[in-house]
Amino acid sequence: MARRATRRVEEFVFFDVLYEDGAQTSNRKVPGSELDDFQGDLLAKPYIEAQDKKIAEISGRPRPAIKSVTRSRRR
Description:
By secondary structure, this protein is an alpha+beta fold. It has one helix at 44-59; strands spanning 12-19, 24-31, 66-71. The protein has one helix and three strands.
């Protein structure tokens, strides 16, 4: 009997993002591999900024600057 291929599930960490204009987005996914044990959640902001830049290029509408990034509460 053939074995089923198992997919490796990458762990994601969810963040809430507050923008300079007061807008907020919740549960933005950042791969756990992008975060460093020493710097903690500080590396999430550049990753989310890169996501926002890509979204802005596709949509044609620039995103405002990020004011703060906080880890989402677990459900």
